[in-house]
Design brief:
Number of helices: 7
Radius of gyration: 17 Å
Strand content: 15-25%
Bound molecules: 2-amino-2-deoxy-6-O-phosphono-alpha-D-glucopyranose
CATH topology: Rossmann fold
Strand order of the largest sheet: 1-10-9-6-2-3-5
Structural class: alpha/beta
Number of domains: 1
Shape: globular
Length: 242
């Protein structure tokens, strides 16, 4: 695992956007796995700026979703599909034909999970997977004690994650869905390059456990230690307990 300490979130975003741009220059139709949450926004802003300045052509890029709420209509502004359309696809000039993700509205949720696994494989696998990290060490929505070999499946959010994510639902925890579909940890580990960004002191404990703790299901992000090409980018705050 490579750990890179950057001065701030903007610098982290720039560094990772450049890695994505380099990948696209080498493989224009790369499958980019993207994450939601506030942390990756500087990455998307920096990549969009590069595309608009003509520094990289993203017109053939493909975008894959990491996780999704169950039961939120796709057009709900906080469904991750909507968030990614707004924050990633539209700024990059991509249509939804470039997008793949699990169907959080499917009646057959298990079938939706299995079909997303198949779609990822048929697409040739994820080239670069961006990850954020929850304050409890979760990646995607793999909460603590998720199996390190898990595949895409339905999960129940912990109360901590519902509290953390209530800010996207007007601060009302009652509006946060209880169930989600997430790529499993085993699924995530199949991406060719994993890039995790964490910023702020609130992530310092989770980053210390990820980088210096044992590989253990209690900190799902520690599974990155098992990956041959994992990069953890942290600002001074997130690095403060290393
Ligand atoms: C959610 C997402 C994760 C993300 C996490 C952290 O739980 N499912 O993919 O990493 O939030 O979000 P933030 O970056 O806003 O702290």
């Amino acid at each position: 695992m490579e750990v890179v300490i950057v001065p701030d979130a903007k610098a982290g975003g720039e560094l990772i956007a450049e890695a994505m741009a380099q990948l696209l220059r080498h493989k224009p139709d790369a499958l980019l796995g993207v994450a939601t949450g506030s942390t990756p926004l500087p990455i998307y802003e920096a990549l969009t700026a590069k595309v608009r300045a003509g520094g990289v052509d993203a017109s053939r890029a493909r975008i894959a979703q990491l996780d999704e709420y169950v039961g939120l209509p796709a057009e709900h502004p906080e469904s991750y599909r909507s968030v990614l359309r707004r924050e990633v696809l539209e700024p990059l000039g991509l249509g939804m034909d470039a997008f793949m993700g699990p169907d959080g509205t499917a009646e057959d949720v298990l079938g939706a999970c299995a079909s997303y696994e198949r779609a990822l494989t048929e697409a040739g696998g994820v080239d670069l997977q961006l990850l954020g990290i929850g304050t409890d060490g979760h990646i995607g929505f793999n909460e603590p004690c998720s199996s390190l070999a898990s595949r895409t499946r339905i999960k129940t959010l912990t109360e901590q994650t519902q509290v953390d994510n209530a800010r996207f639902f007007g601060g009302d925890i009652e509006q946060v869905p209880h169930h989600v579909i997430t790529q499993g940890i085993g699924t995530i580990l199949e991406a060719r390059h994993l890039v995790l960004l964490a910023t702020g002191e609130g992530k310092a404990d989770a980053i210390a456990a990820t980088v210096e703790g044992p590989v253990a299901a209690v900190c799902p992000a520690s599974a990155l230690q098992l990956h041959p090409h994992a990069t953890v980018v942290v600002d001074e705050g997130a690095a403060s307990k290393l």
